[in-house]
Design goal:
14% strand; 4-stranded antiparallel β-sheet; disordered N terminus
């Protein structure tokens, strides 16, 4: 007699067997479990007959087997009433424990591989099979679980009742768990998870308590191995007594190189008076990394001393520390020392790609002519986020445009931001402007409200004008009208800028006269135009005025072509009249100026072009 039993799980065993000489010879192929209706099921099968077991219906692409079982009734060989009809189970759980008894005529033997039910209620997170069994005990007939089912798992329910696990925490874990695909029904059924989702949720809950559960023997052994590896990584060359024990959590995993370097310094210091796990000032001073920096002049002796004191503190007398103290450096202090050292050279590393030499710090190396500009003392912390921005190499930019390119995220300019002004750097290196003159101009300029050393746009324009006044030429006489090239510089700059805009518009198919120009292009044009408006030589004067500087009105008479307009109306209408658009486009605008002794007149002619190649008109 073979007895197959389960308390809360309906168990199926797929096997084949035959009766040979009064004994049963059988082989188990595989086993599966799924939930039942809570009834105890005991099935007796006559070993003298071939048991009837249905076959496997199919194997899904993901490797899971969809099976339908049927055990035919063969009276009078059942030990009890037959089990209730078993519905098909589209999804089956994992392996499970069974209890099997084999009986033959005249003899009896039994073997058991069962597991206690109570022990399965709190399985460890690493035991996937035990978690599957726990899932099988509490899932529904479809082999799925809702959020309420998860809450009713005894282990989870106990944590919720004790307050060890909050409902909100469980809800977060539930929402992060992949749901089992299902067809949407009319009543909007609840989301469900399968056995894989339950294992993930169970382990997520376990992770919240992994520091408090004490772990198993395997976890303790793993932690001990990690500790041993960590100690060996920083062991010196002095045997077991040279191991350096680094407190866990004090340093990050990225400090492995520092551990090796510290262990090397410890090994070099053995027998020289150093403590087994600490190094002295002289030993750190002889470190190749430090000695090379000092020899190159990149790191000063006073900077090294300051870093040492910051890392280990002042000594109490004796020893060879710079302050005469006798403090030694442990591994934590060594890490602190190196991180402070890295911060000293952080600016240099950031600026290397832009060929910008940073300020060498308070008490850094000697100043040389390798491109560094000394703009006086300033807070280097302001420079760290700035030096990676490119230098402004364009010359003769209007002050407002230059300010917008130099300003920081607060739209202010300080001495740190002036480092990026290429033209100013050239003047300082060429001797046209001294650092004292620059400092005087900067200090004399009004600062932005709420700041002591930052300029807003108005302040920068005044600072720019102060520098420009240092190089201002003498005012020309009336006879020099139109003959001074410096007076025409702004006009040439404006025409060059407009030419570039027209070239880009032609290449990209934009509208003429800057009607499709970008905001930045328009801003630069308006900056130059505003400068021109303030120039006396650009004013229109009457021919009868004496001693005045400017353009004679009669010189403006003639035909003028529009090359740029910032008019929002023209941009909206795509021209002056608004006739362009659709199948036509704006082709240009001419202005005809005429004047007599008594009046002046202006006439506009707009050209409209047919996009389809037809005749254009004015």
């Amino acid at each position: 007699m073979i007895t197959i039993g389960a308390k809360s799980t309906l168990t199926f065993v797929l096997f084949s067997g035959c009766c040979v000489g009064g004994t049963l010879s059988f082989s188990t192929t595989t086993s599966y479990s799924t939930s039942t209706y809570g009834a105890r099921v005991v099935v007796g099968i006559d070993v003298r007959r071939t048991p009837s077991v249905s076959s496997v219906h199919g194997v899904r692409s993901d490797g899971e087997i969809s099976m339908r079982r049927r055990i035919q009734r063969r009276p009078p060989n059942f030990a009890c009433n037959p089990p209730p009809p078993v519905p098909p189970f589209p999804r089956l759980g994992g392996r499970f424990a069974i209890s099997m008894t084999v009986t033959s005529p005249g003899s009896s033997s039994s073997s058991s591989s069962s597991m206690e039910e109570d022990a399965m209620e709190y399985p460890p997170a690493s035991d996937g099979e035990a978690i599957q069994m726990l899932f099988a005990r509490h899932c529904d007939v479809e082999g799925l679980m809702t959020l309420d089912d998860v809450r009713n798992v005894p282990a989870i329910r106990a944590m919720l009742e004790r307050g060890d696990l909050l409902r909100s925490e469980l809800d977060d874990i539930w929402y992060a768990t992949p749901k089992f695909p299902r067809e949407e029904d009319g009543d909007g059924g609840k989301d469900k998870i399968d056995v894989d989702g339950f294992i993930q949720a169970y382990r997520d809950i376990d992770d919240m308590f992994e520091d408090d559960d004490g772990g198993g023997a395997a976890e303790e052994e793993e932690e001990e191995e990690d500790d041993e590896e960590e100690e060996e990584a920083v062991a010196g060359r002095g045997g077991e007594s040279g191991a350096v024990v680094v407190p866990r959590g004090v340093v990050d995993d990225e400090d492995d190189e520092l551990r090796v370097a510290f262990a090397t310094l410890l090994g070099q210091g053995r027998g020289g008076g150093d403590d087994d796990s600490m190094i002295a000032y002289s030993r750190l001073r002889q470190w190749d990394e430090i000695s090379s920096l000092i020899e190159e002049g990149t790191l000063g002796e006073d900077e090294f001393d300051a870093l040492w004191v910051d890392a280990v503190g002042e000594g109490d007398g004796g020893g060879d520390t710079p302050s005469g103290g006798g403090r030694m450096m442990d591994y934590v202090g060594f890490v602190r020392f190196n991180r402070a050292l890295d911060q000293l050279f952080e600016i240099v590393d950031d600026a290397s790609d832009d060929d910008v030499d940073p300020d060498k710090g308070d008490g850094g190396g000697d100043d040389d002519d390798d491109g560094m500009v000394d703009l006086g003392e300033y807070d280097t912390s302001q420079t760290r986020g700035m030096v990676s921005r490119p230098m402004i190499t364009e010359e003769d930019l209007p002050p407002c445009v230059l300010f917008s390119q130099l300003a920081n995220e607060n739209y202010l300019v300080g001495k740190a931001e002036l480092q990026r002004w290429g033209e100013l750097s050239d003047m300082l290196k060429g001797g046209d402007l001294t650092a004292d003159e620059l400092d005087s101009l900067f200090d004399a300029t009004g600062k932005a409200p709420g700041t002591k050393d930052m300029l807003d746009e108005d302040g920068f324009c005044a600072f720019y004008e102060g520098i420009d006044n240092l190089f201002e030429c003498d005012e020309p006489g009336p006879g020099d009208i139109g003959g001074n090239a410096d007076e025409r510089e702004l006009k040439e700059e404006l025409l060059e800028l407009l030419g570039d805009i027209a070239k880009v518009s032609d290449e990209e198919g934009r509208l003429l006269c800057g009607l499709d120009s970008t905001d930045l292009e328009q801003e630069r044009v308006l900056e130059v135009v505003n400068e021109l408006e303030r120039e006396t030589y650009n004013r229109v004067v009457s021919s009868g005025s004496s001693g005045g500087r400017g353009v004679i009105k009669e010189e403006l008479v003639g035909l003028w072509d529009l090359i740029y307009s910032s008019s929002s109306t023209m941009k909206y209408n795509e021209g002056l009249s608004g006739l362009a658009g659709g199948l036509t486009r704006f082709g240009g605008l001419q202005q005809s100026l005429s004047t007599t002794k008594y009046l002046s007149d202006v006439e506009y002619t707009e050209r409209v072009i047919n996009k389809l190649g037809g005749k254009s008109f004015e």
